[in-house]
Amino acid sequence: MKALILVGGFGTRLRPLTLSVPKPLVDFANKPMILHQIEALKPVGVTEVILAINYRPEVMLNFFKEFEEKLGVKITCSQEMETMGTAGPLALARDMLVDGSGEPFFVLNSDVVSEYRFAELIAFHNSHGGEATIMVTKVDEPSKYGVVVMEEETGRVERFVEKPKIFVGNKINAGIYLLNPSVLDRIELKPTSIEKEIFPKIASDQRLYAMVLPGFWMDIGQPRDYITGLRLYLDSLRKNSPSKLSKGTHVLGNVLVHESAIIGDGCLIGPDVAVGPGCVIEPGVRLSRCSIMKGVKIKKHACISNSIIGWHSTVGQWARIDNMTILGEDVHVGDEVYTNGGVVLPHKEIKSNILKPEIVM
Ligand code: GDD
Ligand code: MG
After folding, report:
1. Looking at residue 105, what DSSP letter applies?
2. Does residue 288 contact residue 307 with C-beta atoms inside 8 Å?
3. What general EC class does the enzyme of this chain belong to (predicted)?
4. I want to staple 360 with a disulfide (CB 3.0 to 4.6 A). Which of 6, 11, 344, 355 is the partner?
């Protein structure tokens, strides 16, 4: 089977991290978010993943040179010259997707994490005889997603409304689809939104079905949701593969520490923390609800919560980083500095306190 991952878009909501790498390569729980998806696609028989790209394709392709072999999945690229939206890229990649077998193919938004459940999606798709199946999940705040109204018993979608202004329902599009090749006949080769233009039509033809995704789900394309997604992901690791989580007196709740990271004496880490490869966490550091990316150094007695520390940054001793502070790549925070929120662009040095959330250029 084949899968197409929508990796376009500029990832503006995840700046400053996306100033260094395209959104799908931003680390989540110690590996690029897109790898979580590809690793889950492989066991259900996906042999080729097509990346629908409109932004810095060379970065993605260089990255995958290293991983293609390890993953055992062929990675190809379909590049847009202009942004084609969420459906246009399917028309563009038509010849790559269709191989005459008539098999359905997966389409994924690149910024969603969940337990995926691709095998169950295939089984459901094969059972209903419709043209397309989308995964849906329940959320409290549906207005920032695509909302689905469906017949509970059969899963048939009656309406699909992208980012509704008034309440339609609380089941939302999870950004994970299985589509028959015939869906491609509905998409013209031009910028098109699958959510606004294609799904509503398939639904009105009564050929669109939805499966409620069991387990957790999150779109991690915004900092706050990224941190929430990390909590949900670590929770699901606790249930499904607890041996991957850290243990010890310095650990509180669910914590993932890369084997190459060094943790000093007297640290207290957790809950809901990921510490990436090569990180050095000096003695007495306190970390909670945060993501510490590859190569970061946190000096003695620093305290970090509800924040993301980008690749190869350093945090000075006794510094306190809080309230959705996002440090880009290679940022250096001085000793005893306090940051209360704030987005710090790559390669900056922070010598004085950031007292309210702001962008530091
Ligand atoms: N190739 C390509 N070209 N990809 C694109 C383009 C484009 O022009 N525009 C967006 N994408 C990709 C993004 O990289 C992302 O993987 C996916 O399409 C969805 O775009 P987002 O910008 O993340 O959309 P959203 O989060 O506001 O809404 C979408 O996701 C929700 C679930 O997370 C919609 O699909 C909603 O219906 C859905 O509920
Ligand atoms: Mg998104």
Report:
1. E
2. no
3. transferase
4. 344
Separation of CA 246 and ligand 1 centre (Å):
33
* Percent above pLDDT 90 for the chain: 83
Mean pLDDT across 221-247: 94
The helix/strand/coil state of 167 is coil
Confidence of residue 101 (pLDDT cuts 50, 70, 90): confident
| Six token digits for residue 116 | 């995926």
What pLDDT score does 69 carry? Answer: 82
Give yes or no for residue 197 CB within 6 A of ligand 1: no
Amino acid at 311: W
The pLDDT score that the predictor gives to residue 13 is 83
Residue 149, pLDDT above cutoff 80: yes
| Ligand 1 near 146 CB (within 6 A) | yes
Position 56 pLDDT exceeds 80: no
Map tokens 């929430």 to a residue. Answer: 228
Question: How far is Cα 149 from Cα 157, in angstroms, rounded to an integer?
Answer: 6
Q: Give the residue carrying structure tokens 């962008």.
A: 359
Query: Do residues 275 and 258 lie in contact, with contact meaning Cβ atoms separated by under 8 Å?
Result: yes
The helix or strand, by DSSP H or E, that contains position 150, with its residue range, turns out to be strand 146-150
Q: If you measure from the C-alpha of residue 86 to the centroid of ligand 1, how many angstroms do you get, rounded to a whole number?
A: 6
Between the CA atoms of 168, 173, 177 and 182, what dihedral angle is there, to the nearest 10 degrees?
A: 30
Cβ 316 under 6 angstroms from ligand 1: no
Q: pLDDT tens digits, residue range 112-124? A: 999 999 999 999 9
9 lines ligand 1 (CB under 6 A): yes
CA of 222 to the centre of ligand 2 (A): 8
Q: What is the position in ligand 1's atom list of the atom closest to the CA of 219?
A: 33
- The residues, ordered by sequence, that sit 6+ positions from 66 with a Cβ below 8 Å of its Cβ are none
Ligand nearest to the CA of 24: 1
Give the residue-averaged pLDDT of 155-163: 96
What is the band of 61 on the pLDDT scale with cuts at 50, 70, 90? confident
* Token pair belonging to 42: 């492989």
Residue 54 is predicted with a pLDDT of: 86
Determine the atom of ligand 1 nearest the C-alpha atom of 5: 16
